[in-house]
Design goal:
The protein has eight helices and 18 strands. With 436 residues, the protein is of the alpha/beta class. The model is unreliable at 185-195, 220-230 and 355-359 (pLDDT under 50).
């Protein structure tokens, strides 16, 4: 089994806020001491941090659940609970984070040390010291802590490379990478020798440098999952220049020009925007018999099938084995990179809008439905959050929650829907009778 892992699905849970405290001053010489219960502490966030030392998502194969600590509860003497520490999760450069439920992209983590909060901790509940008023100087009301954000995430690693080597299996991509960089990819006389992306740094004679990725061989139908399928096509998306390696000797019995068309078709089928990237055609294995004649035929067919206004891609004949033509190829690649901008990986429609961690004023405060047992069911983000943060062990807190429901218009809405005195009303697992 390959030890390379480039996708993972995980669950993250931020810490809950600590509960507020109900307490009163009881010193001997302090008459009418009043409330003295402190607030709960903030729950910990779950934060992703880019670590350039990581190369795979292997750590997420065995650890798929990440939960931050909850905040401490409030204490007497007006002391607030301590906020929990954030949970730091290290991810490799090039990690794209999606919300598994919506499919929207939360962030694209590409810079070393870059941070992103993927789950926000809940705020601490207020203690009864916060609810004192002239009318109620000794309230027995406190709030429970706000629940921390919980979500399922899809992680996808797309390696960071300036140049990507693409082509059919056994066209010499791994050999080329091994002679132009210090990388040591596996090389063999059989298909799919490379089953994980290999990365190496190139330094040209003129002093330019860039990163090259040797991507596992593609075959016809790869964009639909054939062969290694889309498992590694995603890594081409970050490259700015594509080196299309072709076996010009036709040693596998395939036609070089048909190989060229087939691979481009797979790139286009996977992501149309890949065709925006400039390509250099690398005519490899020129030391083999028939290669020169095949190259002439290839150039002729390429010219015939290109529009007269389109610029033909550059073609560089090389031999990875004899190192023929490599310096010219690398200089041309560096020159093309210098004038090729970064490509935007995602449209705005794919990105999740900047999160607002409060109540949406335009969203309905609650929703009413009917259960199978004829009970009325109340739901809605605002209502459910108020419910979770209510301390039902205190009668005053329960009465406060009832007033909040009335203020939101729940009573009137239930009455308009036909609720009658004694009907069962349910919020989550909590049930109470409707009083008209």
């Amino acid at each position: 089994m390959s030890m390379f892992l480039d996708t993972a699905k995980i669950k993250v849970k931020a810490g809950n806020g600590g509960d507020g405290m109900v307490a009163f001053r009881r010193e001997k010489y302090v008459p009418n001491g009043g409330p003295w219960g402190g607030d709960g502490g903030r729950g910990g966030n779950v934060i992703f941090v880019v670590d350039e030392g990581l190369r795979t998502l292997m750590d997420f194969r065995y650890n798929r659940h990440f939960k931050a600590q909850s905040g401490e509860k409030g204490m007497t003497k007006g002391m607030h609970g301590r906020g929990a520490e954030d949970l730091i999760v290290h991810v490799p450069q090039g990690t794209t984070v999606r919300d598994a439920e919506t499919g929207k992209i939360l962030t694209d983590l590409i810079e070393n040390g870059q941070k992103f909060i993927v789950a926000h901790g809940g705020r601490g509940g207020r203690g009864n010291i916060r609810f004192a008023t002239p009318k109620n100087p000794a309230p027995e009301i406190s709030e429970n802590g706000e629940p921390g954000q919980e979500r399922e995430l899809q992680l996808e690693l797309k390696i960071l490379a300036d140049v990507g080597l693409v082509g059919f299996p056994s066209v010499g991509k791994s050999t080329l990478l091994s002679v132009i960089t210090s990388a040591k990819p596996k090389i063999g006389a059989y298909h799919f020798t490379t089953i994980v992306p290999n990365l190496g740094m190139v330094r040209t004679q003129s002093g330019e440098s860039f990163a090259v990725a040797d991507l596992p061989g593609l075959i016809e139908g790869a964009s639909q999952g054939v062969g290694l399928g889309t498992q590694f096509l995603r890594h081409i998306e970050r490259t700015r220049v594509i080196l299309h390696v072709i076996d010009m000797s036709a040693s596998e019995g395939r036609n070089p020009y048909e190989d060229y068309l087939a691979i481009n078709k797979e790139l286009e089928s996977y992501n149309l925007r890949l065709m925006e990237r400039p390509q250099i055609i690398v005519a490899n294995k020129m030391d083999m018999p028939d290669s020169a004649e095949n190259l002439k035929t290839f150039k002729k067919k390429l010219a015939e099938n290109y529009d007269e206004f389109d610029e033909l891609p550059q073609i560089f004949p090389i031999s990875s084995l004899t190192k023929q033509g490599l310096s010219i190829l690398l200089d041309a690649t560096a020159e093309l990179l210098a004038k090729t901008p970064e490509f935007l990986l995602y449209d705005e429609s794919e990105m999740e809008e900047e999160a607002y961690y409060g109540f949406d004023e335009d969203a309905p405060a609650f929703d009413i439905s009917r259960d199978d047992d004829a009970a009325w069911v109340l739901s809605g983000d605002k209502l459910e959050k108020l419910f979770v943060m209510t301390n039902f062990d205190r009668e005053e807190a329960v009465m406060k929650f009832a007033r909040q429901l009335r203020g939101m218009g729940v009573d009137e809405a239930l009455r308009a829907r036909g609720a009658k005195d004694g009907d069962l009303v349910r919020i989550g697992n909590f049930e109470f009778e409707f009083v008209d």
